[in-house]
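Recall the central idea of this unit: under ordinary conditions, the amino acid sequence of a chain determines the structure it adopts. In this exercise we apply that idea directly, starting from the sequence alone.
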Amino acid sequence: MILLEELNAALSFLITALIGFVLFYWIWQEYVIDSTRQQVFELRDELFDMAAAGQLDMNGEPYRMLRELFNASIRFAHHLNIWRLLVLMFTVKAVGERNFGRYAKHVGESVSSIADPKIRARVSAIVEKQQMVLALHVFKRSLLLMLAVPLALTILIMVLVSTDMIIRTFKKLSLLISASVSYSEQ
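Accordingly, the structure predicted from this sequence is:
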């Protein structure tokens, strides 16, 4: 009887785990990719609207570079995940590739070259949104990150709260000791 119950529990766990993996690695992944593409597309469209309104030069380097960057983000969103990002980071460090950082710097310089400060600030905000969308994309596509980050944040908060309580307790104890020492001296 107990063996049958254990077998039933194990089978239920396996079926639930299988359903969870199918949901995460198939349906959820497709949703995240499509959602990211849509968000980047909307940001690219906002940039286009600025250019169509004459706020940005469509033939200028900032617009062309950002349009290419956004198009690449849309086109290759399905390739962007934590594992490819880690391999890229280690490969860049191992090979000593210096052009990798230059491109990011070049994008920043290109945005900085926009003469109108209001337009430059708006374009910078669009680029920052795009970077946030891609960072969240990497986070949402990784089961490891989705489990580890909230756990790490919870532990960090608990440590900070307990550290704060310990510090307050030591301060109270030191005040109590100081008061008792000064009272005993009188």
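The radius of gyration is 27 Å.
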